[in-house]
Design goal:
- A two-stranded antiparallel ribbon has the order 1-2.
- It is mainly alpha-helical and 270 residues long.
- The protein folds into two domains: 112 residues, no CATH class; 133 residues, no CATH class.
- It is 73% helix and 3% strand.
- A hairpin with a 3-residue loop joins strand 1 and strand 2.
């Protein structure tokens, strides 16, 4: 079986699981996104681990789990804001690790990478929760819109860039990414969200198109950010967890940077 077939089968299976989880109920939505967060974070810490830098993986995963869970439970109406006062104390426990692991790697580097993992991966994904509850009750439409726009941008940029892309987008960081591919990705992303506008009247056609532009621009930049990380580490893929696609970070890198800007845009127009 060639690589394209493997990519296609994996994509179909993965999309089915993700979409079903998001649509079925708020609890399955939270479960699916949380699994993605924790696996992506674990992968990031694995990439950053060197002889000198030893991320505090357990701290990062546990703190991210609690952060995501508290935000979700708040929007579900299960807890009130008083519970969030525990977060500063929980976060501050990371500063104890240099004492616990004294002499094991560079303490400042290890601490910085541990915190970076939470800021870079967990916090953007946490923004999906207020998006899902933007009307006061759980709605999956905006979440699917953001995801489909990002996937359309990635797919269009990949195939168009491979077929006729010539003008390099940022050759020093990612030699295969092209302006032609990015433009096709943007057009495809807009087209997908026009379909969403037809079925879901949350925003106007122009507002959905604006969301596609935001996601395409910052999604592409997010992809380049991860490419820069991989160049520093001299690796091709962030992992091999997803057959034909690399790792979780490879698949969700664009979404990580797109989510904060998409969230800001949506809250501005709605």
């Amino acid at each position: 079986m060639n690589n394209l077939a493997v990519r296609a089968i994996t994509a179909i299976v993965g999309l089915t699981i993700i979409i079903t989880g998001i649509v079925f109920s708020p609890w399955t939505f939270a479960a699916v996104i949380l699994v993605i967060v924790l696996l992506t974070l674990r992968e990031f810490y694995g990439l950053a681990r060197t002889a000198e830098t030893k991320p505090y993986e357990v701290w990062g995963i546990v703190f991210s789990f609690i952060l995501f869970a508290l935000i979700f439970l708040y929007y579900q109406g299960e807890i009130d804001t008083s519970t969030f006062w525990m977060l500063p104390a929980l976060f501050s426990t990371v500063f104890l690790y240099p004492l616990i692991r004294y002499g094991q790697g560079h303490a400042i580097n290890s601490l910085a990478v541990s915190v970076l993992g939470v800021l870079y991966i967990a916090m953007p994904f946490c923004l999906m929760i207020p998006l899902a509850f933007i009307s006061g009750t759980f709605q999956f439409e905006l979440i699917l819109g953001v995801l489909f726009a990002q996937w359309a941008n990635d797919t269009g940029a990949y195939f168009a860039g491979k077929a006729f892309g010539k003008t390099k987008l940022f050759e020093k960081v990612s030699p295969k990414k092209t302006w032609e591919g990015s433009i096709v990705g943007l057009v495809l992303s807009i087209g997908i969200l026009m379909v969403f506008c037809h079925f879901f009247g949350i925003m106007s056609y122009l507002e959905w198109a604006g969301l596609a532009v935001v996601i395409s621009i910052f999604g592409s930049l997010g992809d380049l950010v991860e490419s820069a990380f991989k160049r520093v580490l001299a690796i091709k893929d962030s992992g091999s967890t997803i057959p034909g696609h690399g790792g979780f970070l490879d698949r969700f890198d664009g979404l990580i940077l797109a989510l904060p800007f998409a969230t800001a845009y949506i809250h501005f127009v709605i």
